[in-house]
Each structure stands twice: as structure tokens, then as C-alpha cells.
Here is the input.
Amino acid sequence: MKPKYLFLLKFLGYSLVLFTFGHQLLHGYALLLGQGIHIGNTDYQIPPHIEDFLYGSSMTIIAFFALILATPGIAARKKAGLIAIGLIAFFLTDLLFVQFVVFPQGQPASNEDSPALEIYLCIKWMLPFLLWIMTSYPYLGELVKQKKAGIDSFKNT
Here is the structure.
């Protein structure tokens, strides 16, 4: 089987397995985010519907995990390190935007048409792919290799 098809099959499999645990991931992530916010600001009140808001974050984290796990050529220990780096990036992004932009303390939540909220949503949905490409770049070569025989025969004519 070609490496890119095997990668896609693995990505789909990991995504489906991780998606079955999506609710637990979301709940744990919301608790962790709440703890992180309280470390920096003990007076900040976490909105009661924060899990509804963070639902997209759990899906992007699942996508990132599946991309890293499905990438060929990365040792298990390195995958664990890349996942840890990704989790830190997701956590810091959500921490900053939730606390200071989307739900600023003492102010009403940003409305759905807010440019800041749109920027946050763009960052949140692009982050798994950007992190994957940045951290796995050296290992992606075999997914995009072209047939050299076709190129060489073209040069000889």
C-alpha cells in the first residue's frame, strides 16, 4: 500500500478511536484550562458554559493527535514529545483567548461577530495542521515523494 494511503487510513482510524473519548477529553481539558486560569488570576470566574465553547478545541486536539500518531517514521518517544508540545500550544492559545478576549472578566462575552473571536476560531482550526507540519516536517518526505522514473525518463527525451 502506498505510504500516503496508509497514512490516511491510520489518520482515520486514530481519529475514530480518539473521537470515542471526545467527551472525556473535553471535560478534562475544560478542568485543566480552569486550573490554568485560576493560577494566573484567582478572581476570574469561569463561564458555566465553557465546555460548549471549548467543544471545537477538543476536536482540533483530536485531529492533532491523529496526525502525529499516523505520521510514519517518528519514534514513539518523539511522538509523545510532539504531542506534549502541541498540548502546550493549544492550552496557551485557549488560556489567553478565553481569559482576555472571549470571556474577559467583568465584561460581557464577545459576540459572535467579533473580529477577535473570528481570529481565535481561525487560529484554533489552523493550529493542529500548522503544528503538525512544523513538528513533523522532516518525516513527511515519504508522503509526498514522486516517482523518479517518470521524471528521469522525461529528462532523457
About this structure: The chain has a mean pLDDT of 84. The longest helix spans residues 76-102. The helical segments are 3-20, 22-40, 50-53, 55-70, 76-102, 115-136, 148-156.
